[in-house]
Amino acid sequence: RGDEYLESRDIAETALDADPESASNHNNFGIALLYDGEPEAARDSFLRALELDPQIAGALYNLAIVETYYFYDLKKGRAWFERYAELESDDPDELGAVFGVDLAVAISGTTPGQDSVEGERDAH
Predict the structure, then answer these.
(1) Which tens digit of pLDDT belongs to each residue from 45-72?
(2) Does the predicted TM-score (pTM) go above 0.70?
(3) Angle between the N-to-C axes of helices 23-35 and 4-18, in degrees from 0 to 180, rounded to the nearest 10
(4) Closest by alpha carbon to 19, among 27, 34, 114, 37?
């Protein structure tokens, strides 16, 4: 691995040039821009990915990271993360802990213990 990230921008840019209407390519280019220390441009690339595909979970997750850790906007970061949580249950960077969001609960739409409480209510 080592310095491979240094080449990531060139690779992502080549892919984006080949298919500029690909949401995945915009998302990947945004990641490369973050590695290059360009969070504003990365955010723009993630937003473009969402314009092309509103269901691209990776861009939502990456926007949560950018807003939270690069622009220190927890409110925006949480909003992006909550949109992400509607689509995915994976949380590789444990953002749920930052925002107090349990992805299992967000996906199922229930709160912990809710099923057992409802079961007890039905039994009476």
Answers:
(1) 999 999 999 999 999 999 999 999 999 9
(2) yes
(3) 150
(4) 27
